[in-house]
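Q: I have 179 residues here and want to know how they pack in 3D. Can you give me a structure?
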Amino acid sequence: MSYTQGHREVLFTPPSPRETEFLLLDLFDRYRLAVADEAAHPILLIGALVLDFLAIHPVADGNGRLARLITTHALLQQGYSVSRYVSIEQRMFETRGAYYDAIYASQRRWHEGEHDVWPWIGYLVDVLVGAYEDFESRVVARRNLAAGSKQGRRAWRRAARLSARARPGPARTAPAALP
């Protein structure tokens, strides 16, 4: 839904709750089979999995968070371990405008099976490229720091600033129970 200037507009209608269980089971079965068969590049399969998960929209609140967790888990399963060092979720948060634009563009005509996965896949690839570049700059900065150069210390400080921006915010604590 969009609430631009007080205007409410439905951008996408997910399947009915009655269909959700079947669609989710089918989605993950098809994903596992496609991975096992190496039906396409792993990033394409992960992107399609997440896009369909978001379209199914299985819970009332938290679908985006679940989708980002699924993304990180699937990336790790496929050997894309950059998410152990750079927060993919934080990068998506920082580019949330592009995130929502890509989802919207890719989900049009999803119900008819005529949607275009490429805006979402392109977005996901851009996020991963940025994550790998961030990781590489941290490694280079660490090596330069170890070498003791003045230039290395500057590069390390720059990488530390990038790292701080890529980290999730402080942990939230649950509110105290009411008496």
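Q: Anything worth noting?
A: The mean pLDDT is 84. Residues 14 and 56 are 6 Å apart (CA to CA).
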